[in-house]
Amino acid sequence: MEKTYDCIIVGAGPSGLTAALNLRRNGKTCIVLEKETIGGQIAVSPRVENIPGTKEISGETFANNLFDQISDLGADFGLENVESITKENDMFIVKTDYETYKAYSVILATGCKHREINVKGEKELTGKGISYCAVCDGAFYKNEDVVLIGDANTALQYALLLSNYCTHVYLNTLFDKFFADKILIERIFKTPNIIVAHNLNLIEIKGQEKLEGLVFEDTKTKETKEFKVRGAFVAIGQLPDNDKFKDIVKLNKGYVVTNENMETSCPGMYAIGDCRDKKVRQLTTAFSDASIASFNVNFYIEDIKGAQHE
Ligand SMILES: Cc1cc2nc3c(=O)[nH]c(=O)nc-3n(C[C@H](O)[C@H](O)[C@H](O)COP(=O)(O)OP(=O)(O)OC[C@H]3O[C@@H](n4cnc5c(N)ncnc54)[C@H](O)[C@@H]3O)c2cc1C
Fold this sequence. Notes:
By secondary structure, the chain is α/β, with parallel strands linked by helices. It has helices at residues 14-25, 59-72, 122-125, 134-137, 153-163, 182-190, 283-309, and strands at residues 3-10, 30-33, 76-78, 82-88, 91-96, 100-108, 112-114, 130-131, 146-149, 169-172, 194-197, 200-206, 213-218, 224-227, 231-234, 238-240, 251-252, 255-256, 269-271. It is built from seven helices and 19 strands.
């Protein structure tokens, strides 16, 4: 028989974990279902400096602390990929690759996945020189030159991390400036082994079994420039991952549409964090969404349980 929870949370990133924290503190039963990494995107961040009250913490330590806190409060966890959600008579049926669960409410906290650059060879050489995670793969290129493609906070954080052990980090951006926090841009220009080049468009990835090099075209001069490296990191932003829920909730460009109470178009289903249609995607906004949603979920569950017993 399916296990029934007050709430099922899809995704164990900062928003999903914070929702579990609040629900458990209100005595609600919940399970957090995660398909990849507990902690979500932040687990691979080398240095987090914008959590109020915490000067600096690694993403991994932050995620582990949060996980321990919620485990101690008695939340259930499942390393499972949620494949479908349907609603029958006020109850949600959540199917994963292993199990089927029932719940009075669901919180979508599916975050974002990395954006691909869509140049031939990218897919074939991912894990063979092309990477999306400097924290995970950077150490493979100690004392070597690497290329990093991207112009926003994540790319700059990765460049700074790689500069600690790579000989040179070639930080190439498509446009003529960075779209990142001033403090990070200043650090980049103060780091002698980070070499910044703007207006470079990746046109070719070289290599068969392993990455051998990258060819860029200067969008202003049309000249080509080749970087002979074994390692290249792509950090060009994120995309939502909500396609499988499009029949149950309204999406806008793939992001889940909610109101300010984090309610989606489906009563009893909420969305929080980076998966939500909103402008600012950060830890503090993820925490805030989660607090708002869990407050409202709490009352929703009590109402629906009350109505079922009338
Ligand atoms: C390298 C890096 C550095 C960053 N640094 C900072 C920083 O310093 N400060 C800051 O404020 N923000 C930072 N961010 C952004 C921050 O990490 C995100 O805003 C935050 O993680 C969003 O949390 P979330 O829970 O909404 O989503 P996510 O962290 O994306 O977590 C969503 C989780 O849901 C899971 N999931 C998705 N679909 C399913 C499914 N169908 N079934 C089961 N599980 C599923 C995913 O695997 C993922 O683990 C950084 C991001 C990156 C990538």
